[in-house]
Structures are given as C-alpha cells and as structure tokens.
Amino acid sequence: ENGITRPKGHKVTYHYNSTVEDMHFGKTHPMKPWRLTLAKHLILGYGLQHTMDTHEAVAAGKDQVSRFHDPHYVEFLSQVSPTTFDELCRDPRFAKAIPPKHPGDNVDLGPYNLSTSPGADCPVFADMSTYLFLYTGATLAAARQLVSDTSDIAINWSGGLHHAHKAEASGFCYINDIVLAILEMLKRWPRVLYIDIDVHHGDGVEEAFQREPRVMTLSFHRYGTYDESQPGHKFFPGTGDVSDRGLRGTIGEHFALNVPIGAGIDDRQYGGLFEAIVGRAFEAYKPSAIVLQCGADSLGGDRLGQFNLNIKQHGECIAFVKALGVPLLLLGGGGYTARNVARAWCHETALATDNTLPPNIPMDLIPEPRAFQGHGNGNGQLYPAFPPNKHINECKDDQLEMMVKKLD
Ligand code: TV1
Ligand code: CA
Ligand code: ZN
Fold first, then answer.
1. Catalytic: 201?
2. Does the model's ipTM exceed the 0.95 cut?
3. What integer pLDDT is reported at residue 375 of this predicted model?
4. What is the spatial distance between Cα 209 and Cα 203, in angstroms, rounded to a whole number?
5. Could you report the per-residue pLDDT of 304-341, keeping only the tens digit for each?
6. Bridge-partner residues for 55, per DSSP?
7. Measured from the CB, is residue 204 less than 6 Å from ligand 1?
8. How many CB atoms sit inside 10 A of residue 32's CB?
9. How far is the CA of 5 from the centre of ligand 2 (A)?
10. Cα 307 to averaged position of ligand 3 atoms, centre (Å)
11. Ligand that lies nearest to the alpha carbon of residue 222, given by its number in the listed order
12. Which domains can be identified in the chain, with CATH numbers?
C-alpha cells in the first residue's frame, strides 16, 4: 500500500485515448504525443487510476467541431492525410484558404496554414484526422462530465491546444478543443473563467471570446524579443501585451487579461504573480466554472520555453485554482521536455485527487529509458530544481508588481 486514496467530497474523471499517444508530427518536430504515454504510465504506476473514473475518449463529430470552426476547415481536417493533401489543395472549395507566399518563407504553406514541408509548425502527418478528432472528443467528454454534475474535476492531458483559430491551424494546434469545451459549459453556466499557464500566449481562445463577457480569458506567458542575438524575433505568437484587454468598443472589452513576462521567471516570482492576479480575477468575476490550460512548457529546462519553474510551483497553480472550489476542467497543452511533462501532469493528477506522491520516483516506475537521454535531471525525482535554462534573472520584481496594479 502506498497510501493513495480516493478524494473525499469531490469526484475526478480522467479522459484519454491511447491512439492519440502513438501519433508522430515528424522526426524533429518538438510536439511529442508519446509524452502522454509517459505521463499515463507514471499515473498508473502510482495507482492513481483507482482514485478517479477513467473514460476512453471517442472521436468528436464534424458537427460538434463546427460549433466554433469554419465548416470548410473542418471538412478539410476530416479528409487530410499525407496522401490526400495535394488533391485537397487543388479542390476549389479550399483553394482560397492558401496564404500568399512571402519572400523568405522557409516552408511552403498550404490551405489553413497546413504544410507537408519539413520544419512546418502544423505538419500534415499520418492519421492526423484521427488524432485531432480524438483529443477534441476527450475534451468535450470532460466538459460534459462537469456540465452534468458527474464530475467536479475533469482531466484531459491530450487537450489544451490554445492557438487554433476558426479557419486556421497555428503553433502545433489544429482544433481548438478549449473553445469548444467553453461553448459546452456556457450552455449551463453564466460565466466561465479561462486560465492559461502555458509559456505561450493563449491567443486562439482569447480571440474566440474577444466580444464575449461571459468568458474571461487570462494568460500568463513569455512575451517580447526571443533573445538578444535576434532583436527582430518575437517569442511566439507575439501577441498578449498587458494593453490587450479584449476587443475595444464591444461588450467583451475588459474580459481578456494578459500577463506578459520576461525570460527566467522563478517559482517565487511566478507564484506571487499568479495568486495575486487569479485571486483578484476570481473575486471580481465570480465565475461558475474554470478551465485551466496546464501547458508544461513553462517549466525550467523546457526545450522551447524560457521560464524556470519547478514542478512544485507549476502544481501549486493547479492547487490554488482547485481550492477556489468551482467545477474545474484541467487540460494539457505545450511541454517539450517529455520526462518533465510526464512528472508534472502525474503530480497534478495526484493533486486533483488530494494525493501526495513521495519526492523520489521508485526505480520500477521510471517509464521509458529513451526519456532519460539528453541533458540532465534523469535522477528519478519528481519536483526538483531543473537545470535552469540560460535565461536567468532577467525578470524583475518591480515590473511584476506593476503588472498586478495595472490589471486591477
Ligand atoms: C518542425 C521541426 C517544426 C522542428 C517548430 C518552435 C518545428 C519549432 C521544429 C518551433 C521548432 C515554434 C514559430 C514559425 C515563427 C513560428 C501546444 C515562422 C525548435 C501549445 C507553438 C510554438 C507552441 C510555435 C504551442 C513556434 C503551444 N517554436 N522546431 N516552432 N516561424 N512557431 O515561432 O503553445 O505550446 O523549434
Ligand atoms: Ca499562457
Ligand atoms: Zn506553449
């Protein structure tokens, strides 16, 4: 017995589908769905599956996805594969979705920002339709559990794809499962708060609800110049300044909040910022339910991120939101150093079910040898300090304090 128990007083549901985990975006693409297998095996190793109801996801329908996305885009996504792509590009229905080519573009883009060129953010890969409609199905099933009161916290680590637009893929995201989940939740609840701790700005979700006062979006993210060596290169996607507060002149104005952050933010700084801002937003907005995008690329040592959070602090954000005591949808998102993603989401699954894991991962739970190749921190611990990336101490306390005041 390792002391893992069911939570008292609330119910957790876990939504997954193993088919999603076996997908490949391409050899060098940073998005690795197998990080979900790593996470799942840690979760199973600790016995956390006994503390929640587990649901195998079924694919979302085209009609469901079209409640936000353009029906032509949905049709394209439902048919696209490496073998059908060229033919679909010639189809006049989709031809107008091909963006003009700019000089200096290093990848050829097809309709809806999709591409078969190596190096594309949103590649067309084998079985991609299956992947897209399954992660969306898992998020919708999770949202429906909350809406029907059959769950208090619903989890889908394969969801959280916050950059997808109405008729365009962006930043590894094709279907915006978050927007679809919020639309489902608005059927029952008057106000939904969306919080996004992925290191990237949650631009797709913000844009979808920029005219909608029934949804408040709040993203914490790296913002500004990527690094000193290339002054013109902005951290992706380049939006989400503090002045960005929802669409001016509409009733949605003031219902978007953005917390742009410099490189290298640490646990103490992030925790202070998060609790001050989320605490005030919750008091002021009084949401009936919360959707939390738990992107793990805000951890130290992430392959794409520039923050220095430990798993402990990342988890404290989840614990803080859970303690607010309203129905909660927990979604994944980014996270590009797979072993850290698995540890974070396993720890956060434990938090959701009121369990505490021991600080050291027993040797027999260490999931996959391939996860420990590459740089540092393969020592089997769960929450420790990561090898900080090179961006340290660029993030100043006085700037962070100003931000809390500006957002009041
Ligand atoms: C193929 C192969 C694609 C190697 C993409 C990093 C790659 C990146 C690759 C990459 C990469 C980005 C841009 C592209 C500006 C664009 C899930 C024209 C080593 C939610 C999405 C980041 C983050 C997109 C998604 C970003 C999420 N960074 N290697 N691409 N150019 N795109 O900068 O928020 O985590 O990097
Ligand atoms: Ca974010
Ligand atoms: Zn991200």
1. yes
2. yes
3. 37
4. 10
5. 999 999 999 999 999 999 999 999 999 999 999 999 99
6. 15
7. no
8. 19
9. 32
10. 11
11. 2
12. 12-57+131-407 (3.40.800.20)
